[in-house]
Amino acid sequence: MASSTSISLLFLLSFLLLATSRAENASNGSDLDEELAFLAAEESKEQSHVNSHHDQYRDFENYEDLEQGGEFHHGEHEGGEYREEEPQLPIVDEKDVAVLTKDNFTEFVGNNSFAMVEFYAPWCGACQALAPEYAAAATELKGVAALAKIDATEEGDLAQKYEIQGFPTVFLFVDGEMPKTYEGERTKDGIVTWMKKKASPSIHNITTVEEAERVLSAEPKVVLAFLDSLVGSESAELAAASRLEDDLSFYQTTSPDIAKLFEIETEVKRPALVLLKKEEEKLARFDGNFTKAALSEFVSANKVPLVINFTREGASLIFENSVKNQLILFATANESEKHLPTLREVAKSFKGKFVFVYVQMDNEDYGEAVSGFFGVTGTAPKVLVYTGNEDMRKFILDGELTVNNIKTLAEDFLADKLKPFYKSDPVPETNDGDVKIIVGNNFDEIVLDESKDVLLEIYAPWCGYCQSFEPIYNKLGKYLKGIDSLVVAKMDGTTNEHPRAKADGFPTILFFPGGNKSFDPITVDVDRTVVELYKFLKKHASVPFKLAKPSATPEQVITPKKADEKTESDGAKDEL
């Protein structure tokens, strides 16, 4: 009997617990519905027309964008909104265009000496216009080059690896090596002409002194190999290396008299190779193994000036260089004559390790913008190391601009001994607004506070999308201000930096959950409305919270309505 009673009590207790749990869940669901309805009604009173699509490719996303003068240069995502419905497209015969994914990409570019690959997006109008031209070029180029396409919206890892920032982006891979960007005409004839030129013989024989003199006089930079034979394995290695370079000419000779004109001693051991430039550093001698890889590395490191002036013309030498680390001198025009010789002297010791760059700080076209990007202010000359746009770390020289000090900066960077510098506005004296102001120097204190869930908008003052989004974000901050566990914040991404706050465009919205600040933040990829952002926070917040709605004023009291009448809040609820 006692056993039966115990079982009955246990069954009753389980039933009561289950019923209580269901009631609590129903109550929570009801509370969320009520909160969302309230927010929707509030939004409907002051509707903000904001494009719900995200501006992933901003006008000036990073330092490299200055190469194009701040203009977006690859796709059609420049300023317009996307159309969700596109007209019916004509059928294109793409039988000779390979379709690539992560599974066959490496094999395709490795197995074809010349592989052209288009990264596209299905919704992109410019890609759709290119499709028939690209397909026709693929057919005509059969046997010369292989053409392929890859849907960047499906193959995100590959798109990220190759830093795709717009559509279409077309690359040429030669022997599977680092690709070159195709920036020619988007027509069949343009692609075919460019591709055939790339695939044509890339080294030229020099057999007469007259021809050698003409080459030296006419060409600004040239590579010459002094060989025992114009055919064979050494010539083949030279040809393979030459295909990786498209901005200088490669020559070969067996004549000692011709070699001497190119400053190669006649008794030198062959094969020998030099690179000549009409610049301050006129001659570079190759002293490695005569292989494609070693030759290519030598040419890449020596073909550029010791120090590249940052201009529109010189920008491609910086951004398209296989060497990503940059050592940059910032100086005004008046100061440059004093410091450029110092930088050139340092550059001789670090070929292939850094690209050395000079930025004229007082140049209105680009110098001021580049200086601002790096947080360089004032007119005093400065030197820093920059790791490139992938991780965007900067290391500033603290000391006099001498050869020894700059060499030490470079050596310490390569030995990973330096602490990076990040831009920051001054920490605000008061920070009591609905939306907290984040700068580089208070980021750790507020955003990385483990006790708080933090929603952070990274914006740019000039960004139209950010300006449209501002009133919506401010309203969200107002509604959530009284919740102690939750912070709504914003940071000017043009004047502040932090290694944990990487923007893919403006605005970028990131969520840092409490108790998990050692992990990467969550990118908020929802429509930019108060309701959708609130739903996101309710789902991801580490500390549950409830909206504190203001008390109704007499004007807000709802009067009875007729059966066929609808209020604004009803419409908002219907939308939810």
Automatic annotation (TrEMBL):
Its main location: endoplasmic reticulum. Residues 77-200, 412-542 form the Thioredoxin domain. Residues 1-23 form the signal peptide. It comes from the Eukaryota. Residues 561-576 have a biased composition (Basic and acidic residues). It holds the Pfam family Thioredoxin. Belongs to the protein disulfide isomerase family. Its EC number is 5.3.4.1. It catalyses: Catalyzes the rearrangement of -S-S- bonds in proteins. It is an enzyme of class 5 (isomerase). It is found in: Endoplasmic reticulum lumen. Residues 549-576 are annotated as: Disordered. SUPFAM superfamilies: Thioredoxin-like. InterPro entries: Prot_disulphide_isomerase, Thioredoxin-like_sf, Thioredoxin_CS, Thioredoxin_domain. This is protein disulfide-isomerase. Keywords: Endoplasmic reticulum, Isomerase, Redox-active center, Repeat, Signal.
